[in-house]
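Recap quiz, item 2
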Amino acid sequence: MAKKRTTKKRTTSKGPGPAVRSTDKATLARIDKLADKVVRTSLAKKDPNLVIPSRSLSNTSYNKSKRILQMGSATSDRPLFDLKTARKFMQTVLLSSGVKDLVGAGKTLSLRGMYYMSLHTIQGTKEKTLNDQTESDAVLEDLEVMLGSLREELHVFAKKRGTMIGNITIIDNGDEINCRKMGTGGYAIPSICEDSVIQFKNCEADFVLHVEKDTVWQRFNEDRFWEKHNCILTEGSGQPPRGVRRMLRRLNEELGLPVYCLLDCDPWGHYIYSVIKQGSIALAYESQRMAIPDAKFMGIRAIDYERCGLSDDVQIALNDRDITRAKQIADYPWFANKKPWQLEIKKMLSNGFKMEVESLITKDISYVTEVYVPERLDAQDWLD
Amino acid sequence: MAKKRTTKKRTTSKGPGPAVRSTDKATLARIDKLADKVVRTSLAKKDPNLVIPSRSLSNTSYNKSKRILQMGSATSDRPLFDLKTARKFMQTVLLSSGVKDLVGAGKTLSLRGMYYMSLHTIQGTKEKTLNDQTESDAVLEDLEVMLGSLREELHVFAKKRGTMIGNITIIDNGDEINCRKMGTGGYAIPSICEDSVIQFKNCEADFVLHVEKDTVWQRFNEDRFWEKHNCILTEGSGQPPRGVRRMLRRLNEELGLPVYCLLDCDPWGHYIYSVIKQGSIALAYESQRMAIPDAKFMGIRAIDYERCGLSDDVQIALNDRDITRAKQIADYPWFANKKPWQLEIKKMLSNGFKMEVESLITKDISYVTEVYVPERLDAQDWLD
């Protein structure tokens, strides 16, 4: 029954991927400016230098009014004529050039791909431009902050995870995707969710429910929760990757949809919420484009053990590492002054156990979709 | 801009998920038969016993004519009145009952969900039915072989991964999914790809190209390879999960599409191919429904270093573990008698290095989609 292979030499109507758009032009202009400065300095017979905004923890702070993590103004120099920084200077210019080619060609590459693209032996030596991918990854983070462009705007992406379904139609690279008709599988959220690739078309949803795990998402999809409760349903397979965070942020910011998070009652669940809400401490510069300060934590709550009448079957003892992490998270500036969060973490610690979302299955297979979440929504009962 | 939450109490047209279909009826009948036997034995005042086909390695063999892994006829007893097996007997009956409820309700659950569903304290004791999820996972594997039903037919699934795009329209739980119009994200391949959930509608594709990583898949999708070469493009994010394997198998078996695999040139890539082709040694009983004996290994080949004129940038040294694994794989019965595979592994070992698919980026961003794979397809150059 196998058919003969036929190669169609047709011209594609869409070109080789996202074309050079206005955001791409802005990115290219910033790279040109960076390169110009190096050239001008050299021609003026001065020492070329790159100024890199510092990504250290000490240069990260919580902006209370904007309610996001922010980088301070500290910078570090990366002069060419210094044995300590010469190699990094070369790598920074090399990766800038690679990004320029990539954006110019309207193509995207993975972090791994960028490593290979920039890897070669320096002429006349036996030295490689890069020892391993950690070097190119770090330089790409430098480039993000130097250029003021998200990595996605540099056309570089990481592994994708996460799926979406619900009352929304989106346009993805010209294709219309009706997320109400995506079966059991769903739409795979891409790594790059910038508006140059993804546009929102029709959305009747009232909110977004983001769940931690794809297995829980499956329960909600199977019970057609998104249809009954008029929402969008997303999952990030644990800590959501940047594509999912950017999608959630855009749904919140551009469509005004509240984002409710259903995560485990454990320090990992609290940390996932913290990253969705305020951003990652290690990558503070992305927060202004990724964080959702209004995101709500719906559960699982430490009081649910009593409130939902759960049996001791669901208890997973907190270990020493959990306890340490829980106390660290309680001290995060955005939780430290919030009494409900202090009580939540205190209650979990006094319980002495964690609980997973799946533990609600001990009540009934569909308890979480038919009782737990609807009750929280009706009572507007969540942590902020 | 946030809208007020409105809960729609509409009746869904599709019911609560996959309805009880003919395969489900067959599964239910098998569970009833199992339970009947236990009851009849008890009423006859004989000792109840469950007979479990043995999943041990010694009971696994390679069927040369069918070209798949197969289980032998060895079984083990699981009597109720034996201290060594009483607990497992109880768990087996308990999980059977859980599966019956699940299938009867037309719902599905994750392995984790099945654990919680079956977990309780045995009346009048302090003993739990299950100590941890490994116990319920093992019993579910027993049930698969006892009932002769795939885990998916028991409505139980594991974490999903993997995406698909290309010249095919499928029906997923009643929704029509045009895989030609799935943007940059793609259709997320569900955990359960049985024909009770997924049906194929229109397919013009000539073959399936399965790539190891989502980041490589992204390159092929962006270059619209599936459109130019009239194919379906899948990825499994490493070792493909059962959903992806079952989807590939059905595309091969029901639509007669050849499956070409583009994987890394390393023992892990060879092992992924081996599992796609013959099945997993640890779970031989699934092979007859999952394995694709005709699947081809397109590359990366050890000769590609010279053939494609790659630089030493792409070399990743084989470590001791790689060398041991490579020799083990060379000894697999389905590779042992194939000279091309023996030469392939020998060449990799004499190279002394591995190569990733992404290493082709050192030639050009789109070398893999524009040169490498088209050349292999035209020359029908692959390993079998």
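Confidence is low (pLDDT under 50) at residues 1-19 of chain B.
The domain at 22-157 of chain B is CATH 1.10.10.10 (Arc Repressor Mutant, subunit A).
End of item.
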